[in-house]
Protein 1
Amino acid sequence: MKKKVIIIGGGASGLTAAIWAARSGSSVTVIEHTSRVGKKLLSTGNGRCNLTNSRMDSDCFFCSEPDFPMEVIRQFGWKDTLRWFSSMGILCRSRMETYYYPMSDQASSVLEVLCLECERLGVEIRTNCTTEKIHREGKKGQPLFTLATDQGKLSGEALILACGSKAAPNTGSDGSGYDLARAMGHGIIKPLPALVQLRCQGSHYKSLGGIRTEARLSLYINGELVRQEAGELQLTDYGISGIPVFQLSRFAARALDERKRVQVQIDFLPFMDREESRVFLKKRTEEFSSRNMGDLLLGVLHKKLALVLLKAGGISPELPAGQLTQGQRERLLRLLKEYEALVSSANPFANAQVASGGVDVSQVNPQTMESRLVPGLYFAGEILDVDGICGGYNLQWAWATGRIAGTQAAQRGKKH
Ligand SMILES: Cc1cc2nc3c(=O)[nH]c(=O)nc-3n(C[C@H](O)[C@H](O)[C@H](O)COP(=O)(O)OP(=O)(O)OC[C@H]3O[C@@H](n4cnc5c(N)ncnc54)[C@H](O)[C@@H]3O)c2cc1C
């Protein structure tokens, strides 16, 4: 008789686990508590699904156990992901050299193909199904999980928790997986929003909403430089957003949660160092000495942003540039190169792409994704205390963990 693998969560990692468990000969049931599987997958990469990245290093993932993510990724890397999708008919192409997307540019095509493969393999998918309780019995080598759900009981020799995190709860990823893991004895590192916008103090952001500009950002926590990122900064009416902000946000959110002071220093002239910027500003005031200060940076900086910086420096926009004092010029230089944004909070989970924190990986075997506490219990995807930077890393994590958990859960069933 076929061994039975139950998977809770029909997202990227759960569907991957289902496919690999079924390919390994198990009978598989996926329990999804929303009306359809893969909702979050549909919104990835702005609907285009950035499904992996060919730059796959340890600095692309964060975890309380820093070696854990790459121990997993080494078993199923980006080339394996491309090969696997290609075998199911999804051809991929790279953008910006290392970021991979399906050639269709449609996240929906990735989800459809995963669903077709599940169907081909006879995976049972139960939607609108809520797990009320998990009961584990059986001897050490022969566990048996019995789930009480609102659609009746079901049992299996292996159970995979692939419930996602708390990020983007409208997609079904509502944190209920943490409760299931906790009920099985697992520790949870406090989940916090990551890859998310940062809210900053100051009413002037209201006039900056919608501005995009290249910038270099330096994150300071309690006055100490923690991390730097560069790229397109998006100013919003409440603070800062854009890829470089997302990359910093996991550190900012955790520091704020620990009641630390969080500042982002913004360099609005990232193409010049400080001395070059000083020379540039001096030359500019000489060259356009009859222009008003409000017009001095036209063509260099968004006009609204320039006006906000002038106001912060106490410089009248009506002042002729030729009359700018050295002290005023130094103040403006400082605002252009080291603008201080004091962060008051990270946006909530509703706006976050992923969560930092999750199931404590010290209780999970990276070779098998099996719990070290509960034999027969496996984990896959974002439910774990691993988060990746922007660029296809979180989905790579979902594919890799799904592949390992699915295969191992099926093999465990076979061995006993
Ligand atoms: C807007 C947005 C864009 C993104 N873009 C990218 C991108 O381009 N590239 C990238 O790598 N990553 C991206 N991500 C992150 C990526 O989507 C996630 O990391 C990935 O989907 C996680 O997969 P998962 O299977 O662990 O969780 P999910 O995809 O969240 O799936 C979890 C599933 O489990 C279900 N579930 C939860 N609890 C239960 C329960 N108790 N019982 C039954 N079912 C349950 C949920 O309804 C859901 O269907 C993006 C995320 C968002 C929100």
Note: The mean pLDDT is 96.
Protein 2
Amino acid sequence: MPNNIVIGAGISGLSFGYFSKDACIIFEKESVAGGLCKSFKDGEFTFDYSGHFIHIKDKKIKDFLEKILGKKLLTVKRNAVIYFRGREIPFPFQANLYYLGEKEKQECIKGIKNRKNVKIYDDMPFIDWSKAMFGDGITKYFMQPYNQKLWSYDLKKLTAAWTAPFVPKPSAESIIEAAYKKNDVKYGYNSEFYYPPEKGCGAVVEALFKKIKHSVLTDVKTEKIDWENKTVYAGGRKYFYDNLISTQPLPELIKQLQNPPQNILNCLKNLSSSSVRCVNIGIKYKKELPKLIQGKHWIYFPDKEYPFYRVGIYSNACSKLAPEKSYSLYVEFSDADNKYDSKCEDTVKYLKKAGIMNTDDEIKAVSVVDMPCAYVIFDKKRKRTLEVINDFLNKNNIYTTGRYGAWEYSFIEKNITDAKNLALKLNKRK
Ligand SMILES: Cc1cc2nc3c(=O)[nH]c(=O)nc-3n(C[C@H](O)[C@H](O)[C@H](O)COP(=O)(O)OP(=O)(O)OC[C@H]3O[C@@H](n4cnc5c(N)ncnc54)[C@H](O)[C@@H]3O)c2cc1C
């Protein structure tokens, strides 16, 4: 009997497997391990499941990834902008008011000067948090429209609990100062990021997969969990466990529990998420890269007239992802079900309109990746709901980790760290 059964062989499940000293079986429902960190080839282009650039704070994680890969990661200095009313504003918007038109600039400055002195707390509605942090102008021109697009959720119900590592918070003084002179401070968790030198982000999960000593069973989906008898049903067989580690989306885990307590079932209605559709496009240019994307890694689109919220340029982060005289893009739509044209004509029309593609560029590859559960919604009920669920699960030796297992807004570095810490905590063999 394995000590540990792991559901999912994404970066979290694989990292758990790597650091677990006890017997483990990892189930993966897809035919290839890697989850959202996979990459794939389409013709001569390599695409991720939307750009997966690795930002790392802890040098130990960088060393770990380089050890696994047997190669140095590329170090890339971020060049990201916001495409706002036809202008390029360096990221983050709030630290670069200098680049706005005069009317918008004055409105943003007035907004920050006139902020109401309200108590700021994690669980406050995002829109109130934004006004309290940055004022009405910055909220009106960037925070509100961009986050509305990204989250596809009522910003009065979304809380600010996710913002801490992701939204740079320069002081009011420095925001105003940077309205009058160019700012060269690099803000944010990803001002520098890392990327494998070839084969996309997927190189990391591929390398990790090869280093794991436990069984990783692909094409096997867990179907049912008899938590009272510590048994998992998967691929027509049953498996007993000491500990069950789930990285699959938390609502799916709850739905697989046999006869769950009613209070746990009731939690399901408090767990919601938004989806992302990523359109990957490989393009050959005639004369040169379109001006707007030269040197850029990604561009935010807060304006309503564009249906996508972000466009990234893979080939500017790693030239090996596209052949010569070509470039490759990821175009991200939130909750896009009804907005997408299967031939990608609309997407291309808007890319050309913004200047992300030249009119005479030739499309060589198009791949659509749907991520039905992409961003976990942070609302007032989330924290308490997770406490109730985890209390029940942990008492029954079921543990959750990963972006969707733990139901959080996380990233590769945190996924590795959390899975490692869980494995070390559960290791019987020390
Ligand atoms: C649009 C987008 C862009 C992102 N960009 C970045 C970025 O630039 N940098 C960064 O660090 N992070 C980024 N992330 C976050 C990153 O993708 C996640 O943090 C990471 O992939 C989470 O890994 P995971 O293993 O926890 O989950 P997953 O990758 O979702 O892995 C879970 C695995 O479980 C499997 N599974 C599910 N149910 C079952 C079942 N019943 N039985 C068996 N297997 C099952 C799935 O097939 C999957 O392989 C991004 C996320 C999104 C949505």
Note: The domain at 80-180 is CATH 1.10.3110 (protoporphyrinogen ix oxidase, domain 3).
